[in-house]
Amino acid sequence: MRKAGHIPFLLWALVVWLSGCIGEKNSRDCERTLELFLYSQTACQSEPEYPDRIEELLICLFDGNGVLTQIFSRGPITLDPEYRESLTVTRTGTYTVSVWSGIEPSTFALFEPIPGVTTREEVFLRVLRQERYTTLDRDTFLYYGESAPIPVVDRSIEPITVSVNLQQITNRLTVRIEGIPAEMVESTEVYVESDNGTMALDSRLLEDEILVYYPYERENGQEIQAEFTLLKLDAEHTNLISIRNQREEEFLYRGDLLEELILQNPQLNLECDHDFEITFTVGPGEEPGTYMILRVRVNDWLVHSYDWDAD
After folding, report:
1. H/E element, 213
2. Contact 239/257 with Cβ under 8 angstroms?
């Protein structure tokens, strides 16, 4: 006569085999390797690329509830088509991998994530600032990418290939002011204001004060040329650019960097382009002894003309 207790035990063993870890004792038997393939490709590119400025990585693994389960760094690395990075999961479920690159302690303050506690929506990094003023140098290149959801449903020894597309979220801005009178050059300042200085672990912009970005380099001559590095540009956030005569306390120009300038060039796409050049042409104003912006070009595209007829 067969004992009734044998069937439930066999069913339990079958569940363990099919579904992965049940309890810590079985975790080694249920390990699955995730093999990461990293690259960079915008929506406007037909082929992936492997930027040499991606030299180190911060890799985060989240569970199906968006809770951090693992975090570790790698570097220095050389990103190329053969480069792979691996991590191991010990439980079935759905996971997501996110990867950062370019986080420099001299530029960003980090809020240390805690595995098992921190979620992907929580504050992760904040641009260092003095009061609300900041300058990012020319070598600041911040990248972020995340995988599609990764279902881990069995105990197969085959690794799961996970692709992560690292997208640049920093931007270069060159501002040129031509035609400005020599006596106004030294007293004219150029700056950008944006509330983009705080990000979550998933790279979303979080609430922040409005930062004032000053150029990391400026040249004064027959024209002014100012070079900026900016963080993520998002049309739903504040993005103002100002050209101001400090001596007269007057603005030559003040407007929305995205809506009024960059996005007025139909050839530009914020998902694909990260290098912008804006040229402001200054000329005589309507009143004697005054000056105004006559034309604005963005990446060689005329976006505004403010010419007036003196007659």
Report:
1. strand 211-213
2. yes
Quick: pLDDT tens for 92-105: 999 999 999 999 99
Burial of 264 (0-12, 13-18, 19+ CB in 10 A): middle
Spatial separation of the C-alpha atoms in residues 92 and 95, rounded to whole Å: 9
Nearest C-alpha neighbor of 135 from the set 218, 238, 225, 213: 213
Q: Which residues lie below 8 Å from residue 282, measured CB to CB, with a gap of 6+?
A: 177, 178, 179, 180, 181, 252, 291, 292, 293, 294
Q: How far is CA 282 from the centre of its chain?
A: 33
When computed from its CA atoms, the radius of gyration of the chain, rounded to whole angstroms, is 26
Locate 216 and state its tokens. Answer: 């990391």
3-state SS, residue 182:
helix
Is 237:205 a contact under the CB 8 Å cutoff?
yes
Alpha-carbon distances of 48 from 80, 166, 272, rounded to whole Å: 10, 10, 13
- Tell me the pTM: 0.88
Are the CB atoms for 281 and 298 separated by under 8 Å? no
Half-sphere exposure of 284 (CA within 13 A, CB side): 6
Q: Cα(208)–Cα(56) distance, rounded to whole angstroms?
A: 27
Tokens of 90: 């010990």
